Amino acid sequence: MLKRLKPTTPGQRGMVLLVSKTNKKSKSARGLLKPLKGPKGRSKGKISQRHQSRGAKKFYRIIDFKRNKSDVEGLVYTIEYDPNRNCNIAMVNYIDGDKRYILAPEGLKAGDKVVSSSKAAPKIGNATELSNIPLGVSIHNIEINPGRGGQMVRSAGTSAVITAKEGKYVNIKMPSGEVKRFLASCMATIGVLGNADFKNTKIGKAGRKRHMGIRPTVRGIAFSNPRDHSHGGSYKSTGIGLKTPVSRTGVPSKGYKTRKRKHTDIYKVRDRRSK
Known about the structure:
The protein is mostly beta strands. Helices cover 4% and strands 26% of the residues. The relative contact order is 0.14.
């Protein structure tokens, strides 16, 4: 749910906040937190990646992407906010006493039961093999290789759909529109990830970006010296003209293909650009 503030200050005039439906009851489990220390984007005090800073202090929540707690039923205890990602997370208490965080899909609430099993029912929050999921069911947190853990479709409001099953492979339509083949033995979680309105939020002011660890960005054309940027110097008032847009290190930033893992194209059934 989105929330607009009264414009009592300039920063709140255009601010649009996301009100998360969380119900955190107590402190997070100590074994599921990991401190995030040190400056971001630095190496021995030098900038290794521009436009990044420390930001507000926070802990990293260890998420169970593998869902390898097989055939053990768990109870959703809380739905919590995670400062490290745009979707909420759910703490699951298993009947053997173990506690783990999972990505919270839309519709999952405290008190629900979830399980990870090769024979699990296609219910929201359950994790099972792709071969056990019916066609047309929305899924997320998809494995690329069996046992490695979910790596695909983990952002707020996203989901993929199984479109076909062919032997040991399963065709899945990704959020981008691309159709890819996955091994049927790979795991995935049922449901659409929550916080779908995250894309409609507005930061409102520069200070919130600094809290997020994002430093200011200067346009290349605004540099006064071409030694500092290829677009600097005399281009400041006239534009870069017919020159190819490049980054500060000279790498083309438009029309330059950066994909290197061409050997994975064999798993592509339909390109995302095709109609």
